[in-house]
Structures are given as C-alpha cells and as structure tokens.
C-alpha cells in the first residue's frame, strides 16, 4: 500500500477511472477507451498493479439475495485505550465475516464498524454474542440503515 500520493499521467488516470467502472473490461477495449494500443495499455495496467495503486479486482454482489440485506453501523468504545487493547480488538474484529469495514476513529468512541447481516434477529445475535464480547469492548451504539442512498468504492480521480 502506498503512503504518499503519486503523480499519474492523464492516460493512467483514465485507465483507473475505466477499471473502477468495469474491472473485467478486456485490454483491447480498455486501450480503445483510453486512446492507446493494447500493448502499452497492458504495460500501464501492470505497472499500476505492481506499484499497488490497483490493489485487486473484485465482483460487487447484491447483498439481499445472499442474506446480507441489513446494514448496521456500530460505534464501539473500549474500556481502556491502550496499544495492547487496540491490537487485541483489531485481531478479533478482522476475523468477523459480517464486518465489512472497521475504522479506528477519533472522538467519543474508538471504532466505527459497518456490518451486513440478514435481519434484526441476526444483528441482535451478532451484537450480543460477538461484538460486545470482543476484547476490551465497554459499550456500543448501533445505527440501523433504513435506506441506502449511495454506496461506492469508486475514488474520484481528477483529470
């Protein structure tokens, strides 16, 4: 993973925008869309992969038919904020398949979790039997999503 922004050419930025929209586009079609021939396009994509700008390719699934239609955000406060507690919590939360995202944040709580489950019953189980039993968890506040307005992993890549 890169830690500092890197300067990209206009063509590289176009490649990244196209791949964010369709990661399965053929090299020939990608090259056509960005105004290159296929070989230089492949070379640029491989370089973007090698430098870590492109981390991976992934299919985006519809969560509803897969039993993960309910989104819940959970604020978690640890009993004591220490490096050991952060590491213990981190190690435990990373293993939870229902947790899609987890961030260490500043403010009135320590972590913000995004989880997906089938329904409220499944969430009650996740909260009571799992999240509240994680190392050093003192309290939590939950926010159940009633309507998803926007969800994207697409980054805004300026020209």
Automatic annotation (TrEMBL):
SUPFAM superfamilies: Dimeric alpha+beta barrel, Winged helix' DNA-binding domain. Pfam families: AsnC_trans_reg, HTH_24. SMART domains: HTH_ASNC. Keywords: Activator, DNA-binding, Transcription, Transcription regulation. InterPro entries: ArsR-like_HTH (IPR011991), AsnC-type_HTH_dom (IPR000485), Dimeric_a/b-barrel (IPR011008), Tscrpt_reg_AsnC-like (IPR019888), Tscrpt_reg_AsnC/Lrp_C (IPR019887), Tscrpt_reg_HTH_AsnC-type_CS (IPR019885), WH-like_DNA-bd_sf (IPR036388), WH_DNA-bd_sf (IPR036390). The keyword Transcription applies. Residues 8-69 form the HTH asnC-type domain. The keyword Cell membrane does not apply. Transmembrane segments: none annotated. Gene3D superfamilies: 3.30.70.920, Winged helix-like DNA-binding domain superfamily/Winged helix DNA-binding domain. This is Leucine-responsive regulatory protein. It comes from Sinobacterium norvegicum.
